[in-house]
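Q: Convert this sequence to structure tokens.
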Amino acid sequence: MTENMWNYKSTTGRVTGPDLTGYKVEAADGSIGKVDKHSDEVDDAYLVVDTGVWIFGREVLLPASTVVSIDPDEQKIFVDRTKQQIKDAPEFDREKHLGDAGYHDQLGTYYGAGTPFGGPFI
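A:
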């Protein structure tokens, strides 16, 4: 992977500034929830997605590199993971996220740092 998984790909059209909170998130095979929180920090950009009742109100963290495109008019974000891949992802842990490098390593391993579609589904 030529771009860091914790950065948006240059092809997404993401510009820093607009708040993505509340945007709908579309997996490769359908809607998965809404953005609850996001970060645009260099080398630490991500989305926290509230999956709602779809998988029992769980929140998952998606590295910015999973974003394929953003449609500001429709307020939708398209990601390159399936609903099952997102369902199987480690749950977002607010406490660990703030300062646990091991947690980011765990997410990096799951999302397959260095591979285009990552995770255990390769």
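The two ends are 15 Å apart (CA to CA).
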